[in-house]
Each structure stands twice: as structure tokens, then as C-alpha cells.
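thread: overnight batch results

M.L. [08:02]
morning all. the overnight job finished for the chain we discussed friday. pasting input first so we're all looking at the same thing
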Amino acid sequence: MVVGVIHGNETAGLPIVRRLRHIPSRPHVKYFTVLKLNPDGVARDTRQNAHGVDLNRNFPRGWQAQGDPGSTYYSGPSPASEPETRAGMRLIRRVRPDVTIWYHQHLNIVDHSRGSSRRIVHRYAHVARMHLDRIPLLPGTATRWENSKWPADNAFVVELPAGSLSHRAVRRHVRAVKAVGRVAAG
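M.L. [08:03]
and the structure it wrote out:
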């Protein structure tokens, strides 16, 4: 599964997901794509959803009350309080992806999230020509929830660089997704 946008003002993953939608599935590999988990944030060009919640602080695993509505990391009034968070959770429960890639911006790294396979994230980073690093464990993130719920699966963050991606970079990221699919399929 590939999620193009969770923070509405971090949209560089959109062209990758759009291109992936035209790639046929391979034997033992099926691509599920979510263009925008946060369509209201994209429309408003803001990190948060229409309720002022940072969706990537709203997942139940490790959730903590943070900030006020509209502040950068406002986690919402309670875990999974937001319809987008619940929709993402329902979709992941239904699909049960072996790998989920969540696109973010602006650090220009592939995050080796706790719980994800080092082999998978290394493969993505190598093919995409990005550095591998570890982002500190944050409360209420999608990857934290997903990796704790299904420890044998792999959810990780790709922090794309600031700005838009070139056509060449988009192709590189699509190749990286396909390479991860081959690794996961064994």
C-alpha cells in the first residue's frame, strides 16, 4: 500500500501514487494506493485536516494529547477521533498490506521505523537513491500503529525532499516501490 498524502501541505507523493496507478500488478504483488488520506488539508494547503488535527498524531498507538486545534502537531481530542484516521485504519485492516509506504516531506530520507524490515527500507533507499535514517519515535503516528498491530508487516515513512519532484525522481520512486514489492513477495 502506498499513501501519497497524510499532511495536506506535503504533496510530493501525489505524482508517485498517480504513476503507480498505471502499473499493472505482478504475480504475488498487488499495489493499493491512497492518493490523499487528508483531502481537506490538501485543498486548504495545511498540514492538518478540516478540524485542525495532525492526522499523523491521531492514530491510537502511543497517542498523547498535544497542542491546540490548528497547532502544528495537534493530536485531536482523542485517539482516532478523526474520520480520515478511522478510514485509513479500516482500509489497512481490510487490505492487510505486507508493506505500507507513507510519503511525507521535507527531510529527504527513508525512515527505518521501528518494526519495519531493514532489508525492505534499505532496498527502497538504494533504488530511490536516498539516505536511510531513523526519525525519533513519535506519538500517534500511522506507522507506529500499523507496525505494532501487525509486527510481521512493514510500514515506513519516505520523507521526500522539499518542493515538487522531477519526472526522473518520480520514476525512481516508482521503481523503488516496485523493488520493495519484489522483496516482500520473496
